[in-house]
């Protein structure tokens, strides 16, 4: 399972990087084209076209330049999913696409009005040969003519060098390339000199955590995702929000995912030969792959998607599409309502009973659930104080502080290193969770485990609040096996001082800032877990998981 | 002679609390003759002896870092957690190892420390304070510096060290404390006596003024020190060698005269 994931991610990386480079190059040379695309996307957003094949037809008319790119991608994706030799096809397609780009560029610049249909009529090998010629011609043309682009040439050539050599020196591209895939995918970021690729430099990863460096979140930029035709704009937007971390917290991420899902269901029209649910499933698969690339999915999202897919298979296939849509949307809405909203309320009622007057409650970072609980308890006239513990580099605690002080709760704010200073005065520790694992470990924002540890050393009760939809079947005993790496640069920023950090040039040295996003808290540090079902010990996660599917 | 030495050291200990080595030594020289007069012993010999002692002590202090560095790290003040196979810079010549440095958010000594280590070509990673527990499972050894070693073997160290030590305990990782003898103090501290024991720095470091209106409603604490109970410390290393924290009382009686405990 783990291996599969890894492989998957590797593939993703190839795809992502390749795409990025290509796209960037293209974008550099041809800013206008992206503008076209952007405009196109806006059109789509404003006037959502449900059926993707249709959209491609449309785009053909709108922007003649990107026709091929667009028409080819669906094929590629389908084949990528369904065929066993997914790497091969992907790569060959990648090459093709790259060449396509070059070709379109060449066309534009040299005013060579070679017909598009020509190429399409030819066999694959012929196509390739032709494109290679074109590519050559285009490169020469680039070098000679077009003074405007001459600035860009050195850069783009450097970036190209690696893939180009491989594609030219071999006649049988797909097979040979396939054998080279692992090497290339690792080398290419090092070789190419774009600033983005630099981030992937092997030397600056913590060896211990090499397995965690899945692609580069930064490599997904808005321009790149504009050109993903098979994904609903709502999902594209979502992906960007995830990768730039504008949407944080597993609840928020899950809800935004589900609302994007309703948009998708509403806008989707299946092709006549395919059943709606099956089609939706495949589209959803694409979208979730894309999201996964932007940022690894939260457990809450995975659970929600899994349940939704289950629902897809159970739905009656004989009713008309509109009814199906209606049902699915209803399902998503009730999911949000039951699993997130109502559960949150139930938990806050349960915690309310546990808060007594005069309590000093310590909480860590920002959890939507915890803030909800505290605000509600405050409105119901409980008297308590809150200590918000925070840590760099995310400083989410400030958001929590804002929410709590807004309603007038008395707050104290400390950094995580001052825990020992305040812990003796605390009466309860309330923590949010990202997920609860089957072995009773609590996965949460980094630092949670440390808070629980210090609380235990001072014999303070630790309550973890978690809706049951965040329970996961995964098992993990330490924080490093599966985790997420945040932006290392954020560690270097010190917002309170103007002095430059002593290691601004860390990329050249042996220094590595490491910023992991989650950690797991062992069950012996947690007194109890508050769920909407009951207040449970950590170890009852498997029990809850077992009764859950039947319940829904 | 021994007594004088003790007085000097006692004096030094007092001054060390005021911090600043060079200046304190200077004060020491000027302050001492008065003390000696109280003992009403032969003054002539004493003065030269005293000066000899002081210069000796001075050189000792100067070389102490080197001495400790021979055994261990060069950095005593920083809040470092180090997963080392062996000691730091000196050891780096002989062995290869990785170092993880905790940044210690309110003062960021960790950043300096890491930059220094990286300069001497040691593989270094910087982690935020929050990630200590997560990383601890992979750490072989924790090496920390301290501000003061208390009489019971506990530490008064940079804030955050308590959590580091607890995490180390949780994962059964040995905690090595590097401290020079002058950091020993005969003071005992009860576990939760934070008020007299601690100092608070400017809260602006953790909640910048730019947060504006929020500041009015919130209490912000930014303590400098952390108390680490002796049971969390595995080993104390000074320039004279390693000792367990339970042996501190003995070192104290060697260093200081009991009458001088209270000043």
From TrEMBL, chain A:
An MF annotation (GO) of this entry: guanyl-nucleotide exchange factor activity
Q: Does the keyword ATP-binding apply?
A: no
Sequence segments annotated as region (Disordered): 1-195
List the GO terms this entry assigns under cellular component, sorted alphabetically.
Answer: cytosol; intracellular protein-containing complex
Taxonomically, which superkingdom? Answer: Eukaryota
InterPro entries tied to this protein? IF-2B-related, IF_2B-like_C, NagB/RpiA_transferase-like
Q: Keyword annotations for this protein? A: Cytoplasm, Initiation factor, Protein biosynthesis
Where, subcellularly, is it found? Answer: Cytoplasm, Cytosol
Record's keyword annotation contains Kinase? no
Bias-annotated ranges (Basic and acidic residues): 1-21, 33-43, 52-73, 85-110, 125-136, 167-187
This molecule's function is given as: Acts as a component of the translation initiation factor 2B (eIF2B) complex, which catalyzes the exchange of GDP for GTP on eukaryotic initiation factor 2 (eIF2) gamma subunit. Its guanine nucleotide exchange factor activity is repressed when bound to eIF2 complex phosphorylated on the alpha subunit, thereby limiting the amount of methionyl-initiator methionine tRNA available to the ribosome and consequently global translation is repressed.
Q: What protein family does this chain belong to? A: Belongs to the eIF-2B alpha/beta/delta subunits family.
Identification of the protein by name: Translation initiation factor eIF2B subunit delta
Its source organism is: Cryptolaemus montrouzieri
TrEMBL record, chain B:
Q: Which InterPro entries match?
A: eIF2B_beta_subunit, IF-2B-related, IF_2B-like_C, NagB/RpiA_transferase-like
Q: From the record, what ranges are coiled-coil?
A: 40-74
Broad class of where this protein is predominantly found: cytoplasm
Q: Which family does it belong to?
A: Belongs to the eIF-2B alpha/beta/delta subunits family.
- Drop me one GO molecular function for this one: translation initiation factor activity
What's in the keyword line of the UniProt record? Coiled coil, Cytoplasm, Initiation factor, Protein biosynthesis
Under the subunit heading, UniProt states: Component of the translation initiation factor 2B (eIF2B) complex which is a heterodecamer of two sets of five different subunits: alpha, beta, gamma, delta and epsilon. Subunits alpha, beta and delta comprise a regulatory subcomplex and subunits epsilon and gamma comprise a catalytic subcomplex. Within the complex, the hexameric regulatory complex resides at the center, with the two heterodimeric catalytic subcomplexes bound on opposite sides.
Q: Where in the cell is it found?
A: Cytoplasm, Cytosol
Q: Which Pfam families match?
A: IF-2B (PF01008)
Query: Mind telling me which GO cellular component terms the entry cites?
Result: cytosol
The name on file for this protein is Translation initiation factor eIF2B subunit beta
